[in-house]
């Protein structure tokens, strides 16, 4: 599109479809202020009862899922054990992700009006899920500030490698795609935390656990990074104690597997909300905050999983525009924002597999992992997947 132009937008939409539509700059019709004005004011209000009620509900879901699995394993024939554990891992992974999302809300200030309450809840939840609360909240704020920015973006910044390179072609092949997915599932979250993998190139090797990672943190953040590390150490100490009492296999089956699945959800959801072969990334010259925020994509894992994950998947556009809005407000605000944005609202509900949106979501995840690998500069100076 180029700054203030429209011809590029039209050609991109004709070539790639409506998801390629990018807001012109400058725009008088659509601004952050105009979007806020389109949303009923009460949807920005946070409720202690509503937010803490969701926290209690999530904890009960975790406990009930665990107890039900233990009960099923004790009464069913031993041959059913693999099925019981598989079902437990699958659903407990969703439950833990729901708790992780609430901690993420705390980091944004969208959980309650109290910074203290938010930080206590977020710190405990994220530490229990082996995530450095303050450290990640700081870098995640940068992700929101520089969404789809090729230079300063924080997560899933695509490569600019030559698409004809053998390594790129392999990454797009079925075997290469499966390998990438396995690596993301098993190592992706902590590779990012330890080395800032998938972040901006100039920040490669920077660790979320080091107060001296100046590309990620300011000097004033040092004690917050240390506090985050202490939370992680405390959780690891509890896990070590559990291993000494019940054995490694019990900790592995009951906690580590669903926690790893939770980590995979975090990586996959972030990737899918900001990556589509028809959605551009931007160099510094073409990027604006609003262009980046409106390059976010609403998707769906099916009504039940969307609800369990506090609508982080199907109301992500609103979340990126107003990150301190409570998640229940973001979901309710989405129809208003969709109407106001028109073609600039990005949503890809995906395909259904065997009648399931959840399976369709993962089918689309595989497709995006295989196609959205590298970007190049288009005629409009935007960075398109190729």
Automatic annotation (TrEMBL):
One GO process term, biological-process aspect: lipid metabolic process
Database matches in Pfam families: FA_desaturase (PF00487)
InterPro entries cross-referenced by the UniProt entry: FA_desaturase_dom (IPR005804), Fatty_acid_desaturase (IPR012171)
Residue intervals of the Fatty acid desaturase domain: 84-342
Domain of life assignment: Eukaryota
A GO molecular-function descriptor: oxidoreductase activity
Stretches that traverse the bilayer: 55-76, 82-103, 230-257
Swiss-Prot/TrEMBL keywords: Membrane, Transmembrane, Transmembrane helix
Name under which the protein is recorded: Delta-12 oleate desaturase
């Amino acid at each position: 599109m180029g700054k203030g132009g429209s011809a590029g937008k039209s050609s991109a939409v004709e070539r790639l479809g409506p998801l390629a539509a990018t807001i012109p700059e400058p725009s008088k019709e659509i601004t952050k202020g105009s979007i806020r004005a389109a949303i009923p004011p009460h949807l920005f209000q946070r409720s202690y009862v509503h937010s803490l009620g969701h926290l209690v509900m999530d904890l009960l879901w975790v406990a009930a899922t665990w107890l039900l699995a233990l009960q099923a394993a004790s009464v069913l024939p031993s041959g059913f054990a693999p099925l019981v554990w598989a079902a437990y891992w699958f659903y407990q992974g969703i439950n833990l992700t729901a708790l992780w999302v609430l901690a993420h809300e705390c980091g944004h200030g969208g959980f309650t009006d109290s910074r203290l309450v938010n930080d206590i809840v977020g710190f405990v939840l994220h530490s229990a899920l082996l995530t450095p609360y303050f450290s990640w909240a700081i870098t995640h704020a940068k992700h929101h500030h520089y969404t789809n920015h090729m230079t300063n973006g924080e997560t899933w910044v695509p490569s600019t490698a030559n698409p004809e390179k053998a390594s790129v072609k392999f990454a797009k092949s079925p075997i290469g795609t499966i390998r990438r997915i396995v690596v993301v599932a098993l190592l992706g979250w902590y590779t990012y935390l330890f080395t800032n993998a998938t972040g901006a190139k100039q920040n490669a090797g920077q660790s979320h656990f080091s107060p001296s990672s100046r590309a990620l943190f300011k000097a004033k953040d040092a004690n917050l990074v240390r506090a985050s590390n202490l939370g992680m150490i405390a959780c690891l100490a509890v896990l070590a104690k559990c291993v000494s009492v019940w054995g490694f296999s019990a900790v592995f089956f009951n906690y580590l597997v669903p926690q790893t699945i939770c980590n995979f959800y975090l990586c996959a959801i972030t990737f899918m909300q900001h990556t589509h072969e028809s959605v551009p990334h931007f160099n510094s010259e073409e990027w604006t905050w609003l262009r980046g925020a409106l390059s976010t994509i609403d998707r769906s894992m099916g009504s039940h999983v969307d609800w369990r994950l506090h609508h982080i998947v199907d109301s992500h556009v609103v979340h990126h525009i107003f990150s301190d809005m409570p998640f229940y407000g973001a979901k309710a605000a989405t129809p208003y924002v969709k109407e106001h944005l028109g073609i600039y609202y990005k949503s890809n509900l995906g395909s259904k597999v065997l009648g399931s949106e959840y399976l369709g979501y993962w089918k689309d995840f595989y497709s995006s992992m295989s196609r959205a690998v590298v970007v190049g500069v288009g005629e409009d100076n935007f960075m398109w997947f190729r």
